C-alpha cells in the first residue's frame, strides 16, 4: 500500500496557510485606508467643509457607534454563518459605506456613510481574527497575527501618505475619498480568493464547517475568565491612546510644529507619491504615519518572538509603559516629535502582537468569535469617545496639550490593567506567559 504525499500546495502545508493569510490580511486593507482617510484629510476637510475638530471626532464616533451595535453580533454571526459568508457580508458593507462617504453631498450623508462603514469594517476585523485563529491555532498563531496586522496597516500607511496628495493633485478631497472606496472594492476581490481557498481547505482538512450549529448564547459571556476581561480592559485603554490620537495627529503636527500637509514637488502623480513617501518625516500626515510604519516593520518579528518565548502579559506591561512618556513629551514640549512617534510605534507593536493572539488562549474555541466580537465592541467605546474628547478639548483650549495629557493617563490605566493581567494569568496557570516550548 502506498501513502500519498501531500503536494506542495496542499491545505495542510505552510505555503497554503500563509497564502490564505495574505488574502485575509488584504481583506481589511481597504477598510483601514478608508477609516483613516478622515484623519489624513482632516486639515483639508476642516477648511473645505467649514467644520471644527469636534466634527472630525464625531465622524470617528459614528463609525464606532455602528461598530458597537453590530460587532458583538458580528462575532456571533461568525459563529453562526462561518468565515466565508460572514466575511463576504461585511466586506460588501465596508465597500457600500465607503461609496456613500465619497458620494456624500451633505453632512448627514457623510455620517450615514461612516455608520454603514463602521458596521461592516469592525465586524470584518472580528471575522479576520477568528479566521486567523481557525487556520493557525496551535501553529504560528502570534506570527500570523503579526503579519496580518502589518499587511492590514498598509492601508493606514497609504492613507496618511497619499490622501492629502490625491486631494491636492486632483484639486478635490472627494477624489481622495473615492480612492478609499476603490481600495475597499479591491478588498472584496481578495475576499473572493479567500473564499475559494477556505472552502477547499475545509473539505480536505475537515475543518469545522460553516454554521455548524453553534448556538448564540449570551450567558456564555459569564464563562469568560478574569484574564479575558483584563485583556479587554487593556485593549480599550491602549487603543484609545493610539487611534483617537492619530485621528487628529496630522492636524496637531500642522498646528503645533507647522509641518505642511504635502511636499510640493514637480512631476506626475506617481513621482509626487514616491517623493512624499520617501520624505514622510517632513509632512504632518507622514509624521503621523511613523507610528504605523514602525509597527509594520516589527509586527511579524514580534509575533514570531511571542510564539517562541510567550511572555504575553509582560510585553503588554512594557508596551503600555512606553505610551506614557511619549504622549507627555508630545504634549508639553516642542521637541522634535519623531523619536516620540517611534516609541509609540514600538508600543503599537508590542501590545497588539501579544494581545490579539492571547484571546484564543484564554477562551474556549467555540467562543472565539464571540470573544473577539465582544472585545472589539468594548474597544469601540473608547474609539468612539476619545476622538470626540480630543477634538472638543482642542477646540476649547486652542492647543493639544490637555489631550496629550489625557492620552498619557490612558497609558497609565493600561499599565495597571496589564499588571492585573499578569497576576490573573499566574493564577490561571501562566498560559499567556508560556512560550511554545512550554506549551508543547
Ligand atoms: N484601523 C481601523 C481601526 C481598527 C480597529 C480594530 N478593531 C483593531 O483594533 N485592529 C487591530 C490593529 O492593531 O490595527
How would you sum up this structure, described in words?
It is a single chain. The chain is mainly α. The protein has one domain: MFS general substrate transporter like domains (Growth Hormone, Chain: A). The chain is 78% helix and 0% strand. The protein has 20 helices and no strands. It has helices at 14-26, 29-40, 42-48, 53-81, 83-103, 107-136, 141-152, 154-169, 173-205, 226-240, 243-256, 269-278, 284-288, 290-309, 312-332, 338-355, 359-362, 368-397, 401-427, 436-439. The longest helix is centred in the middle third of the chain and has 33 residues, at 173-205. The chain is globular. 58% of the residues are buried. Mean pLDDT is 89; it is low at 211-216. The ligand NCCCC[C@H](N)C(=O)NCC(=O)O binds next to α2, α6 and α18. It is found in: Lysosome membrane. Pfam families: MFS_1. InterPro entries: MFS, MFS_dom, MFS_trans_sf, MFSD1, Sugar_transporter_CS. It is a multi-pass membrane protein. Keywords: Lysosome, Membrane, Transmembrane, Transmembrane helix, Transport.
Amino acid at each position: 500500500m502506498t501513502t500519498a504525499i501531500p503536494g506542495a500546495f496542499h491545505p495542510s502545508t505552510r505555503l497554503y496557510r500563509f497564502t490564505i493569510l495574505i488574502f485575509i490580511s488584504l481583506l481589511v486593507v481597504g477598510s483601514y485606508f478608508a477609516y483613516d482617510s478622515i484623519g489624513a484629510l482632516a486639515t483639508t476637510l476642516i477648511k473645505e467643509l467649514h467644520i471644527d475638530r469636534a466634527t472630525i471626532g464625531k465622524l470617528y464616533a459614528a463609525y464606532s457607534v455602528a461598530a458597537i451595535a453590530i460587532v458583538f453580533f458580528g462575532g456571533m454571526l461568525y459563529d453562526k454563518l462561518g468565515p466565508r459568508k460572514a466575511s463576504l457580508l461585511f466586506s460588501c458593507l465596508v465597500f457600500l459605506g465607503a461609496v456613500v462617504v465619497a458620494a456624500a453631498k451633505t453632512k448627514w450623508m457623510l455620517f450615514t456613510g461612516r455608520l454603514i462603514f463602521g458596521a461592516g469594517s469592525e465586524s470584518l476585523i472580528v471575522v479576520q481574527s477568528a479566521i486567523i485563529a481557525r487556520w493557525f491555532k496551535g501553529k504560528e498563531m502570534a506570527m500570523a497575527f503579526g503579519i496580518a496586522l502589518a499587511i492590514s496597516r498598509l492601508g493606514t500607511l497609504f492613507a496618511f501618505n497619499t490622501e492629502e496628495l490625491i486631494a491636492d493633485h486632483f484639486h478635490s478631497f472627494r477624489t481622495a475619498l473615492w480612492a478609499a472606496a476603490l481600495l475597499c472594492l479591491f478588498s472584496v476581490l481578495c475576499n473572493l480568493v479567500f473564499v475559494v481557498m477556505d472552502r477547499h481547505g475545509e473539505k480536505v482538512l475537515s475543518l469545522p464547517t460553516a454554521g455548524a450549529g453553534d448556538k448564540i448564547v449570551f450567558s456564555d459571556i459569564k464563562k469568560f475568565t478574569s484574564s479575558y476581561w483584563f485583556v479587554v480592559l487593556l485593549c480599550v485603554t491602549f487603543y484609545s491612546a493610539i487611534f483617537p490620537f492619530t485621528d487628529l495627529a496630522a492636524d496637531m503636527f500642522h498646528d503645533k510644529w507647522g509641518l505642511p500637509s504635502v511636499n510640493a514637488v514637480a512631476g506626475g502623480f506617481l513621482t509626487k507619491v514616491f517623493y512624499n513617501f520617501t520624505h514622510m518625516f517632513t509632512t504632518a500626515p507622514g509624521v503621523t504615519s511613523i507610528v504605523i510604519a514602525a509597527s509594520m516593520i516589527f509586527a511579524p518579528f514580534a509575533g514570531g518572538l511571542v510564539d517562541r518565548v510567550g511572555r504575553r502579559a509582560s510585553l503588554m506591561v512594557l508596551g503600555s509603559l512606553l505610551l506614557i512618556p511619549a504622549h507627555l513629551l508630545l504634549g508639553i514640549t516642542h521637541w522634535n516629535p519623531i523619536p516620540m512617534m517611534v516609541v509609540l510605534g514600538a508600543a503599537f507593536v508590542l501590545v497588539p502582537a501579544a494581545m490579539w493572539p492571547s484571546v484564543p488562549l484564554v477562551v474556549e474555541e467555540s467562543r472565539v468569535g464571540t470573544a473577539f466580537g465582544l472585545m472589539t465592541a468594548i474597544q469601540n467605546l473608547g474609539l468612539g469617545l476619545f476622538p470626540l474628547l480630543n477634538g472638543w478639548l482642542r477646540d476649547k483650549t486652542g492647543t493639544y496639550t490637555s489631550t496629550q495629557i489625557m492620552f498619557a493617563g490612558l497609558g497609565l490605566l493600561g499599565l495597571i490593567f496589564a499588571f492585573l493581567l499578569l497576576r490573573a494569568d499566574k493564577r490561571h496557570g501562566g498560559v499567556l506567559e508560556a512560550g511554545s516550548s512550554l506549551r508543547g
